[in-house]
């Protein structure tokens, strides 16, 4: 693209391994070579927002020579464009001494680039009613933009720019360390639920990469340095590790061409994130007992290791979870709480947010006087009742399929939800089209026998981790 | 450049969704009166075979009658019969049914596949006629409400807002609702049934539909859906007290084991009817409404004092709370408070620039598209305005009014509203033993 090359935005030398980090464009440098002033930036935006050709709708996908996977779902009924950049690196790919760095680096990505002050990206969104954000999970980091279609092209330009021209300097790192540390204090130190998440993950997963939260620890955040930042940026944040997903009223082929122009010169060299061990092959503790400053109740749960989203058993497990624990009647709660009156509340839930495995939880909330042993025994008995499999009928299976279909259809109204489906389907199942087509065909192929099999394999014949939390001084 | 391009034909993906869709989805709401029912509103959208239903009743937690009669549990627990038969019917339809109340109303929300709508409406009828409350669930709800309250008061952000509201609103004022220890859940099933019967017979109720249906279908389905209306009881309308005017310059809320201090520079907001309301929208956005707002620039980007800072406010028929908020590590309290106050001082003294005004207007106008994505969103926006006695499209009209404001007018408002002397400081901070 002419105006891009004219600004030198995608010049390969700028991202050479040993190239010194460029200075950010401040007010004094504005207008100098490589540093557009405010008027230049406005001109970029205007040119980038030049009228695209008439829309052409459908699903279009491409993989650039440098490895960037691109998915464009053009849908005229969305009033906004959702753009998600899925980076296939998350907290589970951090080394033991790097806890929290994937998250810290996510903050970094909103900083100055060699060509734009750090506020340009954000202001472009907010001044047009849009929003920009990001989150760091265990297996991925996802950057999210939502904006009216007229302003979308400039977003692509800025997204591509920050993948190659980000300024990694000590001042920025030091400031982000302070900010992330305040976030940790807010979400964990001063929040009992957040604290429990940290200690719970550590207790359950131990030394597995899921054993530390994406938030990290204050100590590890303080130890982060620019060398680590470069390892992430120049190793992981490269096209081969990225999936760019665009959903909205854009012209599909035209958008793909723009992506190719903006992202095509990004370097192909990259580092592959380390493998995350499968939860099925991991050794878990027999019990985890925690205490924290929670309200006066006792939490207890049996935690079973379940299939990951990419496993062959995933679809059957998803339906099993729906049949047992979703909707207005949670069968586990109904048996434990309503029929037996043995707890204040109860729940069953299938957590499928980990790429290397899922977990199925049957839990209860009781009065604090209930003993640990008794609370867990009651859960065991309730699971034994579910093992009679009265719930396992064709009628219930059909209802579960329809409920999941309804949820999918509700999500289809939102560009962001569709972008999330496509990104997740590709990251976790290697099949982006599945996120477009929907999952109904997969659910339709599951039989009662499949569900019975996963029940036996992952619950009835499995040994759960016993997990409890009582009120007490935080650990 | 492109190594592999897969062009997937549109028709193989979702033919109905694209090929037959009207130009604009969802369509604008249309409403009409139906005898023995009340107002009916429809948001058509034929992209997916889904339907959403809302029964909205015009009484909520700000009503004295609602709070004193146990109407919250009467309304929200009517789905729970002792046998669980109603909930089982919801699941058999692969549907979703929620009962909730807010400050201004009580709403039954139902969503299902279109083919299940007739059965769904029968189910809805049975829910609002259910007289057999599950007493065991009510007792669990009673305990649950206590546990929830004990969890809330351990949250420093909740305590900050609670302290701010207590400074401005007198005991018993509806604006303290949710920030005072809640009353015990009523567990008398007969009483709850009577209260619910009163609630669903109130004049002013609305039935909303959104999704894949049209007015003719609604007119055929809605007959006899609701019982006839009856006269409203006494004490239905919120009773607002005058604002407290004696406010200490500093209020400290001690909490054990905190490692941060939470701040609010607070005062009362403007009511919806204020002619300055659009100016407040603009000023709040610039001061603390986005990632590069004045507060964010000073407190996060310049020095890393905090992770978050912003303007938080609530408005209503009467003013609500308005605060500039942030938080920081304990040892950084003085520096952060100084910077927070300095942002307010500068904002008050210098006002905003034309560029900031343009950006804020762009934000208000641009963000309207975000609430137009799903038919249920459009319906809920319509009900939100209707429940508050605001004309349809009021929120959009506020954005348009704001877009017409001159810089001088906004700065005139700022020089009055943001006078530092009108704000008081509230701090939630570690308990000193």
Please tell me the total number of domains of chain B: 2
Poorly predicted sequence stretches spanning 5 or more consecutive residues of chain B: 1-23
Mean pLDDT of chain B: 93
What is the topology, as strand order, of the major beta sheet of chain A? 1-2-6-3-5-4
Structure description:
- The complex is a heterodimer of chains A (475) and B (433).
- Chain A has 475 residues and is of the alpha+beta class.
- Chain A folds into two domains: 2-263, Cytochrome Bc1 Complex, Chain A, domain 1 (2-Layer Sandwich), CATH 3.30.830; 279-471, 2-Layer Sandwich (Cytochrome Bc1 Complex, Chain A, domain 1).
- Helices cover 42% and strands 16% of the residues of chain A.
- Chain A has a six-stranded mixed sheet with strand order 1-2-6-3-5-4, sandwiched between helices. Chain A has a five-stranded mixed sheet with strand order 7-11-8-10-9, sandwiched between helices.
- In chain A, helix 3 (101-108) packs across helix 6 (170-189) and helix 11 (314-325) packs across helix 18.
- In chain A, 55% of the residues are buried.
- With 433 residues, chain B is of the alpha+beta class.
- Chain B folds into two domains: 26-221, Metalloenzyme, LuxS/M16 peptidase-like (Cytochrome Bc1 Complex, Chain A, domain 1, 2-Layer Sandwich); 250-430, Metalloenzyme, LuxS/M16 peptidase-like (Cytochrome Bc1 Complex, Chain A, domain 1, 2-Layer Sandwich), CATH 3.30.830.
- Helices cover 41% and strands 19% of the residues of chain B.
- Chain B is built from 17 helices and twelve strands.
- Chain B has helices at 10-13, 15-19, 64-69, 71-76, 85-92, 117-128, 135-152, 156-168, 189-200, 215-221, 277-288, 294-301, 333-350, 354-366, 375-387, 394-403, 407-417, and strands at residues 2-8, 30-34, 38-44, 50-57, 96-101, 106-113, 206-211, 250-255, 260-268, 309-313, 321-329, 424-430.
- Chain B has a six-stranded mixed sheet with strand order 2-3-7-4-6-5, with helices on both faces. Chain B has a five-stranded mixed sheet with strand order 8-12-9-11-10, sandwiched between helices.
- In chain B, helix 13 packs across helix 17.
- Mean pLDDT of chain B is 93; it is low at 1-23.
- Classes of the chains: A alpha+beta (475), B alpha+beta (433).
- At the A-B interface, strand 1, helix 4, helix 6, helix 12 and helix 14 of A face strand 1, helix 5, strand 6, helix 7 and strand 11 of B.
- Strand 1 of chain A pairs antiparallel with strand 1 of chain B, so a sheet runs across the interface.
């Amino acid at each position: 693209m002419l105006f891009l090359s004219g600004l030198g935005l995608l010049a390969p030398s700028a991202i050479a391994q040993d190239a010194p980090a460029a200075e950010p464009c401040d007010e004094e440098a504005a207008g100098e070579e490589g540093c557009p002033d405010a008027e230049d930036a406005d001109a970029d935006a205007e040119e980038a927002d030049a009228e695209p050709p008439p829309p052409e709708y459908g699903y279009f996908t491409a993989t650039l020579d440098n490895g960037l996977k691109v998915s464009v779902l053009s849908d005229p009924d969305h009033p906004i464009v959702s753009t998600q950049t899925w980076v296939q690196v998350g907290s589970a790919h951090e080394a033991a001494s790097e806890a929290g760095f994937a998250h810290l680096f996510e903050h970094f990505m909103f900083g100055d680039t060699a060509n734009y002050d750090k506020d340009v990206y954000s202001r472009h969104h907010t001044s047009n009613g849009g929003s920009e954000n990001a989150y760091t999970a265990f297996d991925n980091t996802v950057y999210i933009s939502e904006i009216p279609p007229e302003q979308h092209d400039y977003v692509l330009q800025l997204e591509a720019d920050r993948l190659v021209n980000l300024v990694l300097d000590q001042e920025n790192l030091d400031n982000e360390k302070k900010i992330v540390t305040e976030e940790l204090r807010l979400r964990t130190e001063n929040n009992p639920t957040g604290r429990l998440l940290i200690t719970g993950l550590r207790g359950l997963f131990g030394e597995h990469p899921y054993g530390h939260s994406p938030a990290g620890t204050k100590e590890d955040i303080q130890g982060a340095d620019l060398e680590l930042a470069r390892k992430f940026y120049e190793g992981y944040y490269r096209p081969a590790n990225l999936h760019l997903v665009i959903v909205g009223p854009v012209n599909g082929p035209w958008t793909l061409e723009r992506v190719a122009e903006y992202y095509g010169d990004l370097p192909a060299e990259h580092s592959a994130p380390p493998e995350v061990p499968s939860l099925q092959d991991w050794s878990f503790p027999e019990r985890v007992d925690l205490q924290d400053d929670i309200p006066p109740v006792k939490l207890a749960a049996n935690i079973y290791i379940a299939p990951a989203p990419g496993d062959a058993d995933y679809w059957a497990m998803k339906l099993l979870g729906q049949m047992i624990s979703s909707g207005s009647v949670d069968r586990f709660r109904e048996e434990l709480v309503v029929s037996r009156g043995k707890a204040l509340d109860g729940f069953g839930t299938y957590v499928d947010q980990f790429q290397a495995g899922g977990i199925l939880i049957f839990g209860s909330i009781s009065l604090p006087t209930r003993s640990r042993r008794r609370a867990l025994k009651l859960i065991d008995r309730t699971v034994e009742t579910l093992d009679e499999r009265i719930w396992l009928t064709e009628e219930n299976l059909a209802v579960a399929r329809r409920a999941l279909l309804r949820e999918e259809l509700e999500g289809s109204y939102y560009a962001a939800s569709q972008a999330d489906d496509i990104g997740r389907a590709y990251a976790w199942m290697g099949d982006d089209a599945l996120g477009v087509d929907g999952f109904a065909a997969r659910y339709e192929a599951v039989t009662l026998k499949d569900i019975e099999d996963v029940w036996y394999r992952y619950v009835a014949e499995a040994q759960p981790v016993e997990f409890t939390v009582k009120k007490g001084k935080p650990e | 450049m492109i190594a592999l391009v897969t062009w997937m034909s549109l028709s193989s993906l979702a033919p109905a969704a694209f090929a037959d869709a009207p130009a604009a989805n969802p369509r604008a709401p249309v409403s009409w009166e139906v005898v023995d029912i009340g107002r009916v509103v429809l948001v058509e959208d034929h992209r997916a075979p889904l339907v959403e239903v809302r029964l909205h009743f015009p009484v909520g937690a700000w009503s004295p009658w609602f709070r004193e009669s146990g109407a919250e549990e009467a309304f929200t627990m009517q789905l729970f019969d002792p046998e669980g038969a109603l909930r089982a019917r919801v699941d058999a339809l692969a549907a979703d049914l929620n009962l909730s109340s807010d400050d201004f109303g009580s709403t039954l929300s139902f969503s299902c596949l279109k083919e299940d709508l007739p059965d769904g409406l029968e189910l809805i009828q049975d829910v609002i006629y259910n007289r057999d409350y599950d007493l065991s669930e009510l007792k669990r709800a009673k305990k649950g409400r206590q546990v929830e309250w004990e969890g809330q008061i351990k949250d420093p952000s909740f305590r900050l807002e609670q302290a701010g509201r207590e400074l401005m609103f007198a005991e018993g004022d509806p604006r303290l609702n949710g920030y005072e220890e809640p009353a015990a859940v009523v567990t008398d099933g007969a009483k709850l049934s009577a209260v619910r019967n009163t609630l669903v017979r109130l004049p002013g109720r609305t039935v909303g539909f959104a999704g894949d249906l049209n007015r003719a279908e609604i007119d055929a389905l809605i007959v006899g859906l609701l019982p006839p209306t009856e006269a409203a009881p006494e004490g239905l309308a919120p009773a607002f007290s005058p604002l407290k005017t004696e406010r200490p310059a500093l209020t400290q809320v001690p909490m054990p084991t905190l490692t941060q201090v939470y701040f609010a520079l607070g005062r009362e907001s403007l009511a919806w009817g204020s002619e300055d309301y659009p100016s407040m929208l603009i000023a709040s956005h610039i001061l603390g409404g986005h990632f590069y707002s004045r507060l964010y620039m000073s407190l996060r980007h310049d020095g890393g004092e905090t992770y978050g800072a912003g303007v938080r406010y609530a408005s209503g028929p009467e003013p609500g709370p308005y605060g500039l908020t942030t938080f920081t590590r304990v040892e950084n309290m003085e520096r952060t408070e100084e910077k927070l106050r300095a942002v307010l001082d500068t904002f008050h003294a210098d006002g905003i620039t034309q560029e900031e005004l343009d950006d804020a207007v762009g934000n208000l106008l641009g963000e309207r598209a975000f609430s137009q994505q799903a038919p249920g969103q459009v319906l809920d926006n319509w009900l939100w305005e209707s429940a508050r006695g605001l004309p349809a499209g009021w929120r959009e009209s506020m954005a348009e009014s704001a877009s017409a404001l001159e810089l001088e007018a906004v700065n005139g408002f700022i020089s009055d509203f943001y006078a530092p002397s009108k704000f008081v400081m509230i701090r939630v901070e570690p308990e000193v033993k």
